[in-house]
């Protein structure tokens, strides 16, 4: 195919903070077919991730901001339609940064992974067997380094990363305490994800509950919020606590930085470690995590939940759902054929 | 000796924040001589350290607060006068938590170290060859883990810990940038302690100067302040930066915690590590540090400055000098015979 009729969702204006529906528009366009070294991919699912807020904003980040008028940057899973690269052939299922496009033409180097778990749904390659899963895996095991019998606290405990963190911590013999919003999610945390205790930050005094549920202090804290919830957890750290900063969902803006209590004294007294974590740094070891996560899924010791929005017209309003807390599982947009 | 006429400086009222002269009083008293397993020590110098603020305040800390009416807790160096313990004999020079007393009777276990650097002044056992030295040694080498060619930033750069940190970083082949207050201290930083660049937080825009002096970002930051100076350093972290929280001099009160910019986003973007450090955790390895530091002092690659107050009546107002920045070297009180 030399020219392909494509649909894309582009960033049409620059958000300050959370990107919302009005910052995007849907366009029809014609794209050039793949050249030597390139592949043509028909996307099946787009992944909706908190990181997209950072990509859409014009602020220092680990990737340059998405340009206005360009398709929104997004992880996706799709099927190779046409390949001009020896490593791939038509029919392969692949994941990578394919953006909010129905069809993507890209260099083969853009592909992160050829999905070979044919017995499992392709969509899992964006969730529990994708970056969410490896984020939980390395962010918990490498940065927090939980030991058997320790207490692990997880914010956004029912989320696509947090739910995996909690379950891996249980597999490793830890006691787990999840922090989430609604009663529905709290129930999910206990019944599906096996948390030993759950705190609803919308109803509970988080600091009081942390003291109640973590009588020996918090050994590990996997944080996706970095706001008042974290402040509450910080009041009850165990000696030598390790904290992974995986996301900053509570900081709705960071220019200027929001203010909060200075936590240095708490870190000093507990000789605790607060460390920023980006899963992309661990690329070399993804294969190790994918293999282990798939094994746990097949064994039934690792479960997941998906929240699938049907159709590309649902994409513009999808990112804000993560911040409004209205999704009830790994958020995906299904891209129709 | 069964009874000894002693002088002591006691904590007479509870400070909120920095302990000042009015919180102490000087008392004469009679103490019982040493029993079996105990030693009698005539103190030569009391050490004045920022940690004393924490000990005097009634707030969570790594040691219980000093009781009202008790002699102020303090590190000291002294000479054994009488020993009822096999490890020590009259004439030994020893360091430990001997408190603000002229004579101290204590269990031998209270002694931290028998000083065997007879060729060097005894007072150094409270500074560059004491806890200040080992704090710099482990806080820099173990927590920051500086690599040759990296940029190391030190707050309270001319202080008794900071000056040693800066010099060890130079010995390890790093570029060093010190942050201090006065012109006099800035000059000391460059001329005596070998810093490559100095920032005076009282005159300079610290963030601007950090960008100027650390063009590739801050790889290591040894922090004794945890306030606005740290905020400025945090704006320009290098990828994978390591930060040692050694002291919190800028937080004059921590109940409630003062507020400041939330630094999580900066830590996340740089995948940086912020870690609380207490030298007492490294006791088992002090001997390694003392030996290396003494070697560097004898070689002349590690220099020091002392600021000695003469007489115990100078003790009550001594701690506040650390926070007012009026000392010009390791602050000590000489205890007359």
Please outline the helices and strands:
2 copies of one chain form a homodimer.
Chain A: E1 3-11, E2 24-32, E3 38-47, H1 51-56, E4 76-83, E5 93-96, E6 103-107, E7 111-114, H2 131-144, E8 151-155, H3 162-171, E9 175-180, H4 183-191, E10 197-200, H5 206-213, E11 218-223, H6 228-234, E12 237-245, E13 259-261, H7 264-270, E14 273-276, H8 286-299, E15 306-310, H9 318-324, E16 330-334
Parallel strand pairs in A: 8-9, 8-11, 9-10, 11-12, 12-14, 15-16
Antiparallel strand pairs in A: 1-2, 3-4, 3-6, 3-16, 4-5, 5-7
Helix pairs in contact in A: 2-3, 2-8, 5-6
Can you give a write-up of this model?
2 copies of one chain form a homodimer. The two termini of chain A are 17 Å apart. In chain A, strands 3, 4, 5, 6, 7, 15 and 16 form a 7-stranded mixed beta sheet that branches. A 6-stranded parallel beta sheet of chain A has the order 10-9-8-11-12-14, sandwiched between helices. Chain A is an alpha/beta fold. Chain A has 9 helices and 16 strands. In chain A, strand 8, helix 3 (162-171) and strand 9 form a beta-alpha-beta unit. The model of chain A has no long low-confidence stretch (mean pLDDT 95). The interface between A and B is large, with 37 and 37 residues. Strand 14 of chain A pairs antiparallel with strand 14 (273-276) of chain B, so a sheet runs across the interface.
């Amino acid at each position: 195919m030399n020219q392909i009729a494509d649909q894309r969702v582009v960033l049409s204006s620059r958000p300050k903070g959370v990107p919302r529906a009005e910052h995007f528009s849907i366009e029809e366009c014609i794209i050039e077919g793949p050249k030597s070294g390139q592949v043509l991919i028909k996307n099946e699912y787009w992944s909706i991730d908190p990181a997209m807020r950072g990509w859409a904003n014009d602020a220092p980040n680990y990737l340059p901001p998405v340009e206005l008028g360009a398709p929104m940057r997004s992880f996706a899973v799709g099927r190779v339609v046409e390949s001009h690269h020896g490593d791939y052939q038509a029919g392969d299922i692949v994941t990578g940064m394919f953006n909010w496009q129905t069809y993507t033409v890209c260099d083969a180097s853009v592909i992160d992974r050829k999905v070979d778990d044919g017995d499992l749904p392709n969509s899992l390659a964006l969730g529990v067997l994708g970056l969410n899963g490896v984020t939980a895996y390395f962010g918990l095991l490498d940065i927090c380094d939980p030991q058997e019998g320790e207490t692990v606290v997880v914010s956004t405990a029912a989320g696509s990363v947090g739910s995996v963190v909690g379950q891996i911590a249980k597999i490793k013999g830890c006691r787990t305490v999840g922090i989430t919003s609604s009663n529905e999610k709290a129930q999910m945390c206990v019944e599906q994800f096996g948390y030993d205790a759950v705190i609803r930050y919308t109803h509970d005094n988080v600091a009081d509950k942390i003291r109640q549920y973590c009588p020996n202090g918090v050994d590990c804290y996997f944080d996706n919020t970095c706001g008042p919830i974290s402040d509450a957890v910080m009041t009850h750290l165990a000696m030598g606590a390790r904290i992974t900063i995986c996301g900053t969902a509570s900081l709705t803006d960071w220019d200027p930085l929001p203010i909060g209590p200075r936590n240095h004294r708490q870190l000093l007294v507990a000789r605790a470690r607060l460390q920023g974590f980006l899963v992309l740094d661990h690329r070399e070891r993804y294969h190790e995590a994918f293999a282990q996560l798939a094994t746990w899924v097949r064994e039934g010791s690792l479960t997941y939940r998906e929240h699938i929005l049907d159709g590309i017209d649902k994409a513009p309003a999808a990112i804000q759902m993560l911040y409004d807390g209205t999704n009830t599982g790994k958020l995906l947009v299904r891209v129709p054929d």
